[in-house]
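With this grant's support, the team has encoded backbone shapes as discrete tokens. A representative record is reproduced below.
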Amino acid sequence: MPEIQIRPTIANDLSRLMGFDHTITSDSVWQLELRRDTGQVTASFREVRLPRSISVAYPRNSFGLADDWVKRSMMYTACIGADPVGYVSLLERGLDSMVWVTDLVVDVASRRQGVGSALLASAQDWASGRSYRRFGMEMQSKNLPAIRLAQKFGYEFCGYNDHYYLTQDVALFFAKALK
């Protein structure tokens, strides 16, 4: 495994980060099933294996990063050597004592090497150091790698929003208490 350095994002990183391939490939999805009965709505998710892998588009405009990064509470860049290979951006919700991951992206060539885990661990440390009690992530129901990363870190499924993204994809929400 290569050595991964995590540091705060600087303006010079942005063009490289926006140039990453933000799509993911997934072999499975979390399929939403809604049942409506009189006085009751039941929502359930189940992991469904797909007949073939699909490419899932990133739900946000990656070029918006140039404008939005200064609005984030914190943003970290992962580097291997001098090369940026991933980033995570965070948004504080002080009234809720919660921090949300708004973006977690690893360049294709550096995936499955611990970069996402290192970014998420640094983000959690930052939130803990600021005395936040909860940490949350959102992701598309088609983004099985992100779902598995959340589960690996002990996050619990805590909700969803149908047609949440401009792509009309379902957003899944995962959260955990910080110690």
Remarks:
- The chain has four helices and nine strands.
